[in-house]
Design goal:
MetI-like fold, globular, about 270 residues
Length: about 270
């Protein structure tokens, strides 16, 4: 009995240490974003000084706009492409499935620096002027495989005759796709969409190689700030952390609230 308690306490302590290791730097960053001085080690007083400087800095605000717009567009496009590809892949022959699945894993396993150099050479060979468009195309290219990886297992778990059954009941192929298949694989699509947005939003290596003409995202701005002491980084990081936390919270809470509301309506009808 004593051995079990010790083992249980050891596991709990291990988990606690892991969480402390991961989240302590985040909390420290958030606390020092309200520091009144430039010190990154000593808290001298509460102030919104760095948030004011952040908002007034046109270069940073431009980078925020680039990051958000590129991430949103890349996520939307890669989610559509990845979902359609995953559905088509599930209807292919076994040998084609295996080949395409392995090919899809290459960009995921490939080091970012190799992908970045490859895309840079591709855009240079195609005479593309490096800027916003090349960054967007690059983000779509490396986000799509993650969406396919998230959606394909959900599609593979569906009954192969479900689309035919829907069309036998009068649905068009498009209606069978949007009203039957997509709702059933929605968890996989949501996971792929969140993963794609996260990968795009904080990407540095690929963005650095394919951007140009003064187009920079948040990661590139933060990289430039690290060359000198600038607490504005803490304010920017805190805002990003809060936005991501709210987005994850909304994605997880809203479906649960809808399910509870649906259950209450069903109970009332019964």
């Amino acid at each position: 009995m004593l051995v079990r308690r010790i083992a249980s306490l050891s596991k709990g302590l291990y988990v606690l240490l892991c969480f402390a290791f991961f989240y302590t730097p985040i909390f420290v960053t958030m606390i020092f974003s309200f520091n009144s001085s430039k010190s990154l080690t000593k808290f001298t007083g509460f102030s919104l000084r760095w948030y004011t400087q952040l908002i007034e800095n046109s270069e940073i605000m431009s980078a925020v706009w680039v990051s958000v717009s590129v991430a949103a567009l890349a996520t939307a496009i890669s989610t559509v492409l990845g979902t359609i590809t995953a559905i088509g892949l599930s209807k292919s022959r076994k040998i084609i499935k295996e080949w395409l699945t392995n090919i899809n894993n290459i960009p995921i396993m490939n080091p970012e620096i190799v992908t970045a150099i490859g895309l840079m050479l591709l855009f240079s060979a195609m005479k593309f002027e490096k800027g916003y468009l090349t960054m967007l195309l690059a983000h779509i290219s490396f986000c799509t495989p993650y969406v396919i990886t998230s959606v394909y297992p959900k599609v593979r778990g569906l009954d192969v005759n479900i689309a035919n059954a829907a069309m036998d009941l009068g649905a068009t192929p498009f209606q069978a796709l949007t009203k039957v298949i997509v709702p059933m694989i929605k968890p996989g699509i949501t996971a792929g969409m969140l993963l794609a947005f996260t990968m795009s939003f904080d990407d540095f290596v690929i963005s650095y190689f394919v951007s140009g003409n003064g187009v920079m995202n948040i990661s590139m701005i933060v990289y430039n700030m690290t060359k000198r002491t600038n607490p504005t980084i803490n304010a920017l990081s805190t805002i990003v952390i809060v936005v991501i936390f709210v987005a994850v919270l909304v994605v997880n809470v809203i479906p649960k609230l809808k399910n509870k509301k649906g259950r209450k309506i069903n109970e009332k009808n019964i």
